[in-house]
Amino acid sequence: MRKRIVSRKRVIASVCVVLAAALGVAGVGGYFAFLHPPISTPAEACGNSPRAVVAAGASITRGTLGGDWIGSLRSRSELAGYEFVNAGVNGNTSADLLARIDTDVVACHPVAVTILVGTNDVRDGVPLERYRANLAAITGRIQDGTDARIALMSLPPMGEDLNAEINRRLSEYNRAIEETAESAGADYLPVHERMAEIVAQQENPASYDFSFPLALSAAIQHYAFGRSWDDIADSDGRELLVDHIHLSDRGAAVITELAAGWLSAT
């Protein structure tokens, strides 16, 4: 009887160790993906440089879950004179960005601003006209408060099946982005169009199936086990997206090239 009790205690102890380890691994991935701040947030970097470039948006801009295109811009020698400010906040919609545009963008006195926001509007079912109004207000407030050049970026695909219903809806938001840029006299960067050219070559593109557990799994694989974002995407048959929304390094490189070309064209 005593041997059984000892054996049972050992099993329970082993299970507890395994659970603790699993929770620790999940905690590492979750912290760095969702809680750890990016480099050069507005609170840290605003006012520190006469040549600030503010990248405003949500998690794709924040770059802690998926490829970090702003970090790649910092490494470009032709852009060495710029200070890149990461104003990406996880989960933000266009309304959220509008609410913080003065503190996180205008207050930085930027020479250039990129805006990439709307994926969460599509996911949350924000009416198209409300999104369009928010985007126009964001652009107008930056123009009123700064002399910055402004680039509006179209939204990446959601999942890599361009014919999926969610991507048909997303195309309407991208049309609103292009029209807002034109009416405001801002520049338009065709992120979606460049990515669509790449995923359109796939024979069996992955349909949209985002979930928080999938995003957490990607984060754990990257931060706890050192897998690259490209490897994570590859393992699930995706080219540009690690979890149907956030970018692989290949996906991030598309935005890096577009943004670098825009900033270099003075």
Give an overview in words:
This protein is of the alpha/beta class and 266 residues long. It has a domain at 39-192 and 251-264: Rossmann fold, CATH 3.40.50. The protein is built from 13 helices and five strands. Strands 2-1-3-4-5 form a five-stranded parallel beta sheet, sandwiched between helices. Helix 1 packs across helix 11 (212-223) and helix 8 (128-145) runs parallel beside helix 9 (165-184). The longest helix has 34 residues, at 2-35. The protein is globular. The model is unreliable at 13-23 (pLDDT under 50).
Summarize the entry for a quick read.
The chain is of the alpha/beta class and 266 residues long.
Give the strand tally.
5
CATH class of one domain: Alpha Beta
Beta-strand percent range: 5-15%
- Provide the CATH superfamily of one domain: SGNH hydrolase
Mean pLDDT: 90
Low-confidence stretches: 13-23
CATH domain topology of one domain? Rossmann fold
Q: What's the helical proportion of residues?
A: 40-55%
Discrete helix count: 13
Cα gyration radius (Å): 21 Å
* SSE order: HHEHHEHHEHHEHEHHHH
Give the CA-based shape. Answer: globular
